[in-house]
Specification:
single chain, 2 domains, Jelly Rolls, 12-stranded antiparallel beta sheet, mainly beta, 30 strands, 6-stranded mixed beta sheet
């Protein structure tokens, strides 16, 4: 399990994966202006290479389907991105290079022992010239096939990480309102917003199966709404062993310009005193374009490779018989993140007094989706609102929340 570090910025390290419980971990930084390694075309405009040796026991895959997961995660500024490519010899054997994420991941099914080269590639659209990352390689097994059962997702709300009263100056063709500068112009014009408390929403899937949504439209058209079906897979692993269930509707979001699943999350503001919890404000039931954005189960067993990739909410997965078929969802072990700066990520708190409150998010508020557990669909944090009647209101997260407020 030893890892060797190279002096050159082009090489992150090398390591050996030799057993199933433990992972090989490494880290690095890709510099956008550092130039590329010439050995593979995917390295443009810049990359780092990690050399991974697989030295697993001969029976590692006996009666236990699975593979070697290779993943990276990264942070930095909004819209920073890295891409992931895995080579065996001169052949590209796996890649994860979608946009709008903080992680990439692949699964090398029943991988044979030998040498792999892992390339972490800088995305030229990243706002930062330097993007730090962590890398991981480990054995991941599929869910046990017996007893035969449905592999259900399980939505869990993660705590908010950011609060703000300042939207981006401009995003998706929408701009901050000149009259009500804490809100986007679309929020003011379409929803009557005046004072927008902005926050992120993080919804993770901790279940055995993916949250998989399917929808369609006549080829080349973008209807305002279309039916959404949840595909539920079986532990048998047979490609035709699944159930499709009508769970609601997709809607074309006018600002984001892609399809969202209606009523996927709702956030509300509560005041708690000696008489109990009191609902102060409730945000709209927010629609989501579901995608694998954050690797929620980093370093843990039970997560899959990144599969649901933006911008799949807009682009059809395939076209057949004059119909466009779309696919979106959240893989097991992943989370979808809707950041605070996106339009519609707000509650109007005009007229709310200074004080300490609880900010709560509920996933699937209409209970439309089939899940393994519906009792863990809400999460909250304690926040403080200050200077609410002044020109520069502020909000801070001051502690964890409490049980689900109703």
């Amino acid at each position: 399990m030893a890892i060797t570090f190279f002096a050159s910025a082009a090489f992150a390290a090398s390591g050996t994966l030799s057993n199933t419980p433990r992972a090989v971990l490494w880290s690095g930084t890709v510099e956008g202006g550092s130039g590329q390694l010439s050995e593979v075309p995917e390295c443009a405009p810049a990359c780092q290479r990690f050399d991974l040796t697989l030295s697993l026991s001969p029976g590692v895959w006996n009666n236990k389907p699975g593979g070697v997961q290779v993943a990276i995660r990264f942070g930095g500024a909004a819209f920073d991105n890295l891409r992931l490519y895995v080579y065996r010899g001169t052949s590209l054997i796996a890649k994860s290079d979608g946009i709008i994420a903080t992680a990439q991941s692949v699964l090398l099914r029943e991988a044979a022992n030998g040498e792999l080269k892992i390339y972490v590639v800088y995305d030229a659209d990243s706002p930062n010239l330097s993007v730090a990352y962590e890398g991981l390689a480990e054995v991941e097994y599929d869910p046990q096939p017996h007893p035969t059962r449905q592999l259900l997702p399980d939505l869990v709300v993660r705590s908010q990480r950011n609060l703000s009263f300042e939207p981006f100056p401009s995003l998706f063709g929408d701009s901050a309102s000149a009259t009500y500068p804490t809100c986007y112009e679309s929020e003011v014009q379409e929803e009557g917003a005046r004072l927008c408390l902005r926050f992120d929403q993080i919804l993770a899937n901790t279940g055995e199966g993916p949250l998989d949504l399917r929808f369609s439209a006549p080829a080349g058209t973008t209807p305002a709404t279309t039916n959404a079906y949840q595909r539920i897979y079986s532990s048998s692993g047979a490609p035709t062993d699944y159930q499709d269930r009508l769970v609601g509707q997709m809607e074309l979001h006018p600002v984001h310009s892609h399809y969202h699943f209606r009523s996927f999350g709702q956030t509300s503001l509560w005041k708690v005193d000696t008489s109990g919890p009191h609902l102060i404000r409730s945000g709209r039931k927010v629609s989501f374009c579901l995608a694998d954005t954050l690797l929620d189960a980093w370093g843990e067993k039970g997560d899959g490779p990144r599969f649901y990739i933006a911008p799949d909410c807009l682009l059809p997965a395939y076209t057949s018989g004059g119909v466009d078929y779309f696919l979106q969802g959240i893989s097991r072990g992943w989370a979808d993140v809707y950041d605070w700066y996106l339009p519609d990520q707000y509650i109007d708190v005009s007229g709310v007094a200074d004080g300490v409150y609880v900010l709560q998010t509920v996933a699937d508020p209409d209970n439309s989706l089939v899940e393994a557990n519906d009792s863990n669909n809400c999460g909250n944090v304690t926040i403080r609102l200050s200077n609410m009647n002044g020109p520069t209101p502020s909000a801070q997260i001051v502690g964890p929340g409490r049980g689900c407020l109703k």
